């Protein structure tokens, strides 16, 4: 029997979740809800229900939550109390304390609780993580991310840190297999909104890897790049195109004295891998389906979501306090 899925939130992200759930084998979209109606016309033959309680009453097995962040806690706790497996769009909640309550509720109920960090399901990221785990880069030294582009009109309730930088924090910890140890950040407000629209952050993971993030939504160019530098070279993952490129440390000796005296690395071969490129949102729903069915574990757990939110809130606190380093 397919998993009876409910979807709450039919906005900019909800419409894509509706499409993907309908396309995912082993899932059936049986109920949708949004108190604001169905602006994108995704409900089809389904009635647009008014709230999470009506969604639960429709007899669902699992739910996808795509409401604004400020409502994640309320909706998540209701679903946990009703025994419904749930994936919540990132971030898990509007505060760390709220995220803790949500994660604990699902853990205590013995339910699958996931957070929708779709970038983890990008083909370039998955291939990168596999190659790092195989030791192809040797020791990892540094992870850098750049996530820049124009302002997304869909955002109204959070700034660039909670909307976009949260992806990079989750990705970095996932790729490195290590949580954050400390972080510091600076933000600016240039768009006339109450929330920050640019952030520069640096940090260190518990493993000793140093990290930095450049994130804004005031750039006329769109960029989604993750660079992992290690003892054998560097991997560059482009999550917009799904491409992964490896820049190897050179092995050809140089006869130019000025360069030869520098005790560093030289340019080597460059390889761009040919990868199968599936829609990350489809991979994410399949992973959630498998977790609900008890046949897979490739989800972002709510506990991981709480850690990411802890780092994000530390970034904002650091920026508010002049950029001081905050230990986690």
Helix content: 25-40%
Q: What structural category characterises the helix and strand content? A: alpha/beta
Number of helices: 9
Please, what is the CATH homologous superfamily of the largest domain? Dihydrodipicolinate Reductase, domain 2
Termini separation: 44 Å
> What CATH first level of the largest domain would be assigned?
Alpha Beta
The coarse overall form would be globular
Give the mean pLDDT: 94
Query: pLDDT under 50 segments (min length 5)?
Result: none
Biggest sheet strand line-up = 14-13-12-11-7-10-9-8-15
Number of strands: 15
Characteristic terms for this protein:
single chain, 328 residues, alpha/beta, Rossmann fold, Dihydrodipicolinate Reductase, domain 2, nine-stranded mixed beta sheet, six-stranded parallel beta sheet, 9 helices, 15 strands, globular
Describe the protein in words.
By secondary structure, this protein is of the alpha/beta class. The chain has two domains: 3-118 and 281-298, NAD(P)-binding Rossmann-like Domain (Rossmann fold); 120-278 and 309-327, Dihydrodipicolinate Reductase, domain 2. Helices cover 32% and strands 27% of the residues. It has nine helices and 15 strands. The protein has helices spanning 14-23, 52-57, 72-81, 96-109, 123-133, 160-176, 257-260, 280-293, 302-320; strands at 3-8, 27-33, 48-49, 62-65, 85-89, 113-116, 140-148, 180-188, 198-205, 210-216, 223-230, 233-238, 243-249, 267-272, 326-327. Strands 14-13-12-11-7-10-9-8-15 form a nine-stranded mixed β-sheet. The longest helix has 19 residues, at 302-320. The chain is globular, with a radius of gyration of 21 Å. The mean pLDDT is 94. InterPro entries: Gfo/Idh/MocA-like_OxRdtase_N, Gfo/Idh/MocA_Oxidoreductases, GFO_IDH_MocA-like_dom, NAD(P)-bd_dom_sf. Residues 126-235 form the GFO/IDH/MocA-like oxidoreductase domain. This is Gfo/Idh/MocA family oxidoreductase.
């Amino acid at each position: 029997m397919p998993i009876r899925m409910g979807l709450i939130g039919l906005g900019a992200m909800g419409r894509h979740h509706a499409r993907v759930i309908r396309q995912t084998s082993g899932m059936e979209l049986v109920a949708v809800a949004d108190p604001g109606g169905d602006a994108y016309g995704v409900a089809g033959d389904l009635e647009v229900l008014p709230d999470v309680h009506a969604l639960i009453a429709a007899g669902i097995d699992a739910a996808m939550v795509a409401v604004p962040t400020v409502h994640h806690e309320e909706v998540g706790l209701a679903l946990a109390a009703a025994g419904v497996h749930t994936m919540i769009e990132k971030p898990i909640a509007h505060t760390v304390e709220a995220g803790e309550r949500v994660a604990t509720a699902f853990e205590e109920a013995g339910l699958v609780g996931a957070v929708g960090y779709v970038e983890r399901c990008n083909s370039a990221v998955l291939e990168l993580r596999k190659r790092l785990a195989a030791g192809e880069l040797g020791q990892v030294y540094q992870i850098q991310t750049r996530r820049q582009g124009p302002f997304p009109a869909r955002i109204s309730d959070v700034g660039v840190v909670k909307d976009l930088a949260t992806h990079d924090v989750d990705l970095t910890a996932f790729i490195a297999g290590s949580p954050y140890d400390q972080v510091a950040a600076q933000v600016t407000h240039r768009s006339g909104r109450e929330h920050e629209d640019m952030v520069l952050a640096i940090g260190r993971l518990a493993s000793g890897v140093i990290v930095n993030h450049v994130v804004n939504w005031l750039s006329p160019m769109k960029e989604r790049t993750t660079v992992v530098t290690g003892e054998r070279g560097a991997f560059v993952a482009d999550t917009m195109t799904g491409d992964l490129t490896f820049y190897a440390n050179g092995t050809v000796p140089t006869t130019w004295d000025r360069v030869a005296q520098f005790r560093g690395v030289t340019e080597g071969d460059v390889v761009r891998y040919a990868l199968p490129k599936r829609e990350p949102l489809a991979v994410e729903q399949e992973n959630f389906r498998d977790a609900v069915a008890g046949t897979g574990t490739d989800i972002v757990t709510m506990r991981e979501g709480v850690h990411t939110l802890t780092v994000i809130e530390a970034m904002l606190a650091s920026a508010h306090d002049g950029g001081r380093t905050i230990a986690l």
